[in-house]
Design a protein that fits this description.
about 70% helix, mainly alpha
Length: about 140
């Protein structure tokens, strides 16, 4: 379903641009040379734009895509909406409080079992927090 892929990729690009714009309002780093709290959302937003652009390009020049079922499209839209909600709530909630359940739900929507989703919900936010919060000393909002 070429149009569904393109539509979802365009929604994700809008979400990513929103993420980058919102991150621009985060406080500037106080220490010279430190990345600051906006670095992580800007990196994620940039990667999301690049990957979504790749999806659009692949839908034009790649092999024919299988048709999505009616169950597949609501999942993709739920993931895009969930990402937008996470971006909005990030300014109100702690990183780990927000992204552990968000990762759990997102991985479940992608079709993983409960065991894989629980492992991902612990490993992915924990790794990001450890890398940026503890090792690089980037304060999370």
């Amino acid at each position: 379903m070429r149009y569904g892929t393109i539509g979802t990729a365009l929604v994700l690009i809008v979400v990513a641009i929103t993420m980058i714009v919102v991150a621009g309002n985060y406080p500037k780093p106080t220490t010279l040379g430190s990345p600051g709290p906006a670095r992580l959302p800007i990196i994620f937003g940039t990667l999301l734009v690049i990957l979504s652009g790749g999806l659009i390009a692949r839908s034009f020049v790649g092999p024919h895509e299988p048709e999505l079922t009616l169950q597949g499209m609501p999942r993709a839209l739920a993931l895009a909406a969930g990402t937008a909600i996470c971006i909005y709530l990030w300014s109100f909630l702690n990183f780990l409080v927000l992204f552990i359940p968000a990762t759990l739900l997102g991985v479940r929507l992608l079709g993983a079992g409960w065991t894989g989703a629980i492992i991902a919900a612990i490993v992915i936010p924990g790794s990001a927090y450890t890398l940026f919060g503890l090792l690089l000393n980037v304060p999370f909002p």
